[in-house]
Write a structure and sequence with these properties.
single chain, 118 residues, alpha/beta, Rossmann fold, 4-stranded parallel β-sheet
Length: 118
C-alpha cells in the first residue's frame, strides 16, 4: 500500500523528515503553507514526490519554500495559490489546496501502487 504525508506549517518539515527516514514507505508528500526549510539537511534524502503549496501573498514562506525546493532531489512542484495568505483564509483558497493535494496524491499514490513499492 502506498503512503502519503500531508503537513501544514511546521508540520511540513516533520512530514518531509519522516519521508526521508522512510524512503521505501512514503511515496508522496504535500506541504500546505509549510516550512520545508526546517527539514534542513534531510531535504536531499527525500525520495517521495513532493508538492509544496504556498499562498501567493505569503512572500516570506514562498521564499523559504523556493529555497527548500532547490535542495530536494525528488520529483517536486511548487504550487502557488493566487491571492492567498499563510492560513488560506480567503474565499476558495482552502478548496484550491484540497484540489491540488487530491490531484497530487491521486497521481503519485496510484502510480506507486501500480508499480509496487520502490
Amino acid at each position: 500500500m502506498a503512503l502519503g504525508y500531508f503537513g501544514a506549517s511546521t508540520g511540513a518539515a516533520a512530514a518531509l523528515a519522516a519521508a526521508a527516514l522512510l524512503p521505501d514507505t512514503v511515496s508522496a508528500v504535500v506541504s500546505r503553507g509549510g516550512r520545508p526549510d526546517l527539514a534542513g539537511s534531510q531535504l536531499p534524502s527525500v525520495r517521495a514526490a513532493t508538492l509544496l503549496i504556498v499562498g501567493g501573498n505569503d512572500s516570506v514562506v514562498l521564499a523559504l519554500n523556493r529555497t527548500a525546493q532547490e535542495k530536494l532531489r525528488c520529483e517536486n512542484r511548487l504550487a502557488i495559490v493566487p491571492n492567498a495568505t499563510h492560513l488560506f483564509e480567503e474565499a476558495g483558497a482552502l478548496e484550491a489546496v484540497a484540489h491540488l493535494a487530491w490531484d497530487w496524491f491521486t497521481t503519485h499514490l496510484a502510480l506507486t501502487a501500480s508499480v509496487g513499492h520502490r
